[in-house]
Amino acid sequence: MASTLEALNISKSYREPLFKNLTLKVPERGLIFIKGPNGSGKSTLLRVLALMEPPDEGEIVLMGEKVGDVTVKDYHKYASYISYSFQEPLLLPTSVEENLRLPTKVSEQKLSELIDRLNLKQLFGKKASKLSGGEKKRVDIARAIIRETPLLFLDEPLSFLDPSYVELVIELIVEESSRRSVLVTATEAIPELEGNASQIVDMVEARRSAKG
Description:
Elements: E1 3-14, E2 16-27, E3 30-35, H1 42-49, E4 57-62, E5 65-67, H2 72-79, E6 82-85, H3 96-101, H4 108-117, H5 133-145, E7 151-155, H6 163-177, E8 181-186, H7 191-196, E9 199-202, H8 203-211
Parallel strand pairs: 3-8, 3-9, 6-7, 7-8
Antiparallel strand pairs: 1-2, 1-4, 4-5
């Protein structure tokens, strides 16, 4: 199976090494689970893989293209391949409906499906700033999933969620991984995701190797 994304011997440090000479090949479909405690570098690794910040060393290859220094113009092109949900939802200061309809490459079928499954219709007219943490998270996850991109990045997708939606979001992640590349970070163990993962990256081990 071809790779959508490759990280070749990448390294990153903030005051101390987070990971060093890490190589990762992301297949066209499947789930990559990135685990570790707070501060272990999970979100940093995800941002590096998403080209939001450069590695200190090593190379990133996205959709077969070696990525160098990313300009604003380049990033818009590369971002068309990636849907991203941040750990803390970053919603526009508009209505929920506008937040869900503004992104590019939106699948209307997927949007309609997620409106029902995540109970979003009742939130459509509300300003995003007026939502609870769990409501914002549901909107942010839906906004990422409805974009038809080869790569889906989910940083701590279960954080802020109301308990009643945790199992549903796990189901959605597994479903998405059957048709595209999905990268998920998590502080806590999530057996259902780890059991479905084609690869598991342990950031504690990555840091230990970097220091060694």
